[in-house]
Structure formats: C-alpha cells, structure tokens
Amino acid sequence: MLKRSAFALVILFALSPAYAGFNLNSSGLLPEVRQVSLELPKTAPVPAPKPAVCKPFLMQISVGGVAETVTIERGCTSVNDQVWVIVVGLRGKPGIEVRVSSENYPLEKALIDKRVKEILLNGATDQDADFIVGRTGPLLARAAAAPDFEKAPLLAQASEELKAYLARP
C-alpha cells in the first residue's frame, strides 16, 4: 500500500505543470532551482615536503674497561645539518679530553661523519680501540700529569692525531 502511494505521488509531481518543461537531457532551467557547479579543479595542490629535522643526541660508549671514555654526539646547525662529534677523555679527569667535530674540518667532514657513525652503529672496532687506548690515551695521561703550560700542546697533538685517524681514506 505504501509503495503504491509513493508511486502515485511521483507520478503526480512528474505530470504537474511546474515540472512539465523539465528534462534531464535538456539545458532548460527551472526558475526555483539554484545552479551549482560540480567542476573539480584541474590539478590538486601538492603538499610541500617537510624539511629534514636534525635531532641532537649524546651517547657514551665503552672501549673495554680502560681509563678512557668515548662520547659520540650528533649536533645540529641552524639549517638542520648534522654535525658529528667524538670526544675522548680520561675517566674522572674533567678537562682532559680531545674533541673532534666534523664541523671544524670541512674538507674531511664526510670521512669524519662516516667513521663516527660507524663507531656509533657498529661499536668500536679493535683498530679503533687500539688507537684510542694506545695513542690517544697515553697523550691524555701525559697531559693530565703535565704542568698547565704543557697541557694545551699535548691535547692539541692528541686531537690532531684522532682527527687524522678518523679522516683516513
């Protein structure tokens, strides 16, 4: 019964004089119908890629229970470039340390970054540990025992040797 009533209403509207000129295939406009454009834009806007974000961190690694501590840092510049740093110091002796930063050596930056990341990801190799314990450590120990005027040259020598070791081809 309900279906018949609905069908009768549709027939009445279809045959009424207000909709007599309406045809879905014609371009005739009804006076009381508002026109809406359904055209989509030709190209969708592409979202801009997010800039890479550098996140600084600090990690201290062990070289095998010796007097040297090794700290690896990743810093960030003002334009979000990564700066890798390795710091070797004597345990319990503040200020007796060498710091090699890839930012300070632009010509060797790629090699220093690569070596420091390898140490961070894979741990210090035997060769790395031997260099730190056998070359850098003794220079740091000599600098700790030296008078103040001799400390700076010994620390500079240790820093230069560590930089040369990291930047080797």
Structure notes:
With 169 residues, this protein is α+β, with helices and mostly antiparallel strands. Helices cover 40% and strands 17% of the residues. The chain has 4 helices and 4 strands. It has helices at residues 2-15, 109-122, 126-145, 148-166, and strands at 57-61, 68-76, 82-90, 97-101. The chain has a 4-stranded antiparallel sheet with strand order 1-2-3-4. A hairpin with a 5-residue loop joins β2 (68-76) and β3 (82-90). The longest helix is centred in the C-terminal third of the chain and has 20 residues, at 126-145. The protein is rod-shaped. The mean pLDDT is 81.
Structural class: alpha+beta
Overall average residue pLDDT: 81
Report the sheet-strand fraction.
Answer: 15-25%
Flag low-confidence runs: none
Number of strands: 4
Question: What is the radius of gyration computed over CA atoms, rounded to a whole number of angstroms?
Answer: 37 Å
Terminal CA distance reads 91 Å
Spell out the helices and strands N to C.
HEEEEHHH
Helical element count? 4
User: Largest sheet, order of strands side by side?
Assistant: 1-2-3-4
**Which sheet architecture does the biggest sheet show?**
4 strands, antiparallel
Question: In percent, how helical is the residue content?
Answer: 25-40%
Approximate shape: rod-shaped
